[in-house]
Amino acid sequence: MGRKSAATAKKEPKVESMDVEERNVLLMHEERVINTYDDASDVPRARKEGKFDVKELCKDVKVEIIGEVDDGLTLEFDLVHVEAPIANALRRVLIAEVPSMAIEKVYLYQNTSVIQDEVLCHRLGLLPLHVDCREFDWPKEKIVGINEQGVDCEEVPTPDPNVHLVFAINVSCTKNMKATAAASEPSELYHDSSVYSRAFQWMPIGDQKERFAANPPRMVHEDILVAKLRPGQQIEALVHCVKGIGRDHAKFSPVATASYRQVIFEI
Hints:
single chain, four-stranded antiparallel beta sheet, 7 helices, two-stranded antiparallel ribbon, alpha+beta, 26% strand
């Protein structure tokens, strides 16, 4: 193996002896790929009078939309004339730095389902919200914590229209008295046996009703299963949503996943 590697190394051209065009080409060998990064493409082009200039770098960058799903939840695009580290930085920004709204505080009045309170609150926090976070300010005050008696809060704090979104949910499961004798499915035997994200109702505060009249805040999907109930069980809660970024918590990440791949053109 050692002799084979040495022989291969002799055939590989040195990067220093290549011209600019050769440096922009990936060299694929039997056991490895060389020249995956070239220092003559991005950074030198972005230097102006010896200083790095972002505007110079962006002049040659092109974004070409390749595909977009009709529901607006999937987007594929080509990023041309950039190195892989820059594409990876963009991917990390999409995941951790782009703000969005998410459920931050759950004020649980009633939960007689089989799901524990902590698990239910965690599930609610991960529900994606359809709302423009640019209409809201960053939360400045610290969230109310647990007091000496172990109580999270004795009363619901007054929400700020410029900071909070408020949703309410109140679902109770009851028997379907009109169910046929042959019915066996829970959806036929009971009313509201499954709690979906569409059960959340937006509660406008302040001037939010006028501000969001054209596009009311709501869940991204209405068919997300939250919990399952049986007769006599109930879930009642009030939730406050705030603005945040994925670096603080994954629930604020606006993308389910963001990935990139390097496209190689054969010459």
